[in-house]
Design brief:
Endonuclease, Chain A; 33% helix
């Protein structure tokens, strides 16, 4: 969704963007002299362990103001010689506008901007927005960051390699997920590739002999496809034997479908199970592995009888 913001709405939405930051916040502005209200919003983010990255224009912040914001312990502070843009981004929402992080501008100037949101927000459906705009914005931010000089790096960062997750490229984000998955599958190595619909999938080829496993769908956890690649007459026999005692809920925590020997076995979460109580992604992946291995174990047992 794209939304135009006039002066008053712009001030409100910037504070909302800051307040709704959950992990990281990026602000790029040339001039900084923060109002009491805006500093309170940043202080709350800081206290909630949100990592704040600010890039401002070189030599355009007074020492008193710098000392004030340096009290934010989760702050990364950079300066750049040629900054003129005004940009606010929390990973889900970005605002490009004319408003500096500057008290005088907030109180006196006529300002305007554009808000771009990825999805559902504050009780009304904004729809799903083409991610190309986010990727273009992220590319520009990465170039600005590369050209900047650091003044302070927060303790959360690895001092040998600075990284902000919300401005990683799509490829880097996917590789992070691949690396996370592979921690739980040991010798079962997943890689990323695009399917015929140009959608990313995470695939382990030959997870078991002539059986591929794919993580598919939203956030790579919507469903798991288990593809059997043996010759058709053999897989037809396996399917016929398997389906004779088929129960889609036979594996606790999951439901699955096998709708024909030429199709993959699709494994889904069973939402009657306590999935909503699992807040840890690592625990989710361990549970996914358990579901995959239960399917593979049954496949091996049935295969031996065919």
């Amino acid at each position: 969704m794209v939304k135009f913001l006039g002066t008053e709405n712009l001030k409100v939405e910037i504070k909302e963007l800051i307040k709704n930051s959950s992990q990281e916040l990026v602000i790029i502005v040339p001039y900084i002299k923060i109002s009491k209200g805006m500093y309170s919003a940043l202080k709350k983010c800081n206290d909630d362990d949100v990592e704040i990255t600010i890039i401002y224009r070189e030599e355009k912040m007074a020492s008193k103001e710098k000392n004030r914001i340096l009290k934010l312990n989760n702050l990364n502070l950079f300066h750049h010689p040629n900054i003129h843009c005004k940009f606010y981004f929390n990973g889900d929402t970005l605002i490009v506008c004319s408003l500096n992080l500057y008290e005088y501008s907030e109180k006196n100037n006529r300002e305007m901007g554009i808000l771009i949101s990825r999805g559902y927000r504050r009780g009304f459906n904004l729809g799903y927005f083409n991610d190309t705009l986010f990727q273009d914005a992220i590319k520009e931010v990465r170039e600005i960051l590369t050209g900047a000089e650091h003044e302070k790096i927060c303790n959360q960062q690895n001092k040998s390699k600075f990284s902000i997750d919300i401005i990683k490229t799509e490829t880097e984000q996917i590789q992070d997920i691949v690396d996370q998955i592979n921690q739980f599958f040991l010798n079962k190595s997943f890689t990323s590739e695009k399917n015929e619909n140009e959608e990313w999938i995470l695939i382990c080829k030959n997870y078991f002999d002539k059986v591929d496993v794919e993580f598919q769908g939203y956030n790579y956890s919507e469903r798991i496809a288990i593809k059997i690649n043996i010759y058709s007459e053999k897989v037809k026999k396996v399917y016929k034997k398997w389906i004779s005692s088929y129960d889609e809920f036979e594996f606790r925590g999951f439901k699955y479908y096998w709708n024909g020997y030429k199709k993959p076995i699709y494994l889904y979460r069973d939402y009657n199970y306590k999935w909503s109580e699992i807040a840890d992604t690592d625990v989710e992946f361990r549970k996914f592995k358990q579901g995959i291995d239960l399917i593979i174990s049954k496949y091996r047992r049935v295969l031996k009888t065919c």
